[in-house]
């Protein structure tokens, strides 16, 4: 009997082996919760942010597109009006209403107080934009007029016109500088962007700006540039409008990242086979 008992007795038996199934169940649940990846929650959270953020940016670009299209429509409606005499008094509300409206001025340039803003490019060439005080004949008011662009080499050779002239233009506002634009330095004669209030105070004019419209053929530009005559621009107003492409890009990215998130969460966990590798010695 002792030999028979010794044949079937357990070698190195440990009661801890009875708890192995409980350990396997606990580890299995842990691996299921993170899909076999200890960083699963962080990765899933990061992937979840991508479709949310891109969807927000896509909706924002759609709203920007609607705003830009409304602005373009309003500007085109203003440009279609017949030219009017510029009112002698411009309140802020009236100034906003007249922006981009064609107006007519009669008077003469005060070229001894002109301002050159730049550098600005025109058809691949570097130069300056000439802003000159203009004395109105009907009201004796002085306002600012953007005469046009001159080449850099003609900076000190700008052709002046002291005669009484009639010009057609558009009421415009100043420019908003970006973070890289240096501040204007009136004392040194350096102007980097159009600040109507600052420029009007410097030349002693009203804070009103009219953009003179070129009435000559564009084919004459080269000859006028060589003569130092400022090149006015056309009455067309162009706006940077790529919001539709931006909206499509962000919304497409939201869809793609949503699919990636779904596939990441629903993927099969890579779990080790604990039952196969578990060993109990008898």
From TrEMBL:
It is a multi-pass membrane protein. One of its GO terms (biological process) is mitochondrial respiratory chain complex IV assembly. It is found in: Membrane; Mitochondrion inner membrane. GO terms for cellular component: mitochondrial inner membrane. Keywords: Membrane, Mitochondrion, Mitochondrion inner membrane, Transmembrane, Transmembrane helix. It comes from the Eukaryota. The chain crosses the membrane at residues 246-265. Pfam families: SURF1. InterPro entries: Surf1/Shy1 (IPR002994), Surf1/Surf4 (IPR045214). Belongs to the SURF1 family. Probably involved in the biogenesis of the COX complex. This is SURF1-like protein. The lineage of its organism: Eukaryota, Fungi, Fungi incertae sedis, Zoopagomycota, Entomophthoromycotina.
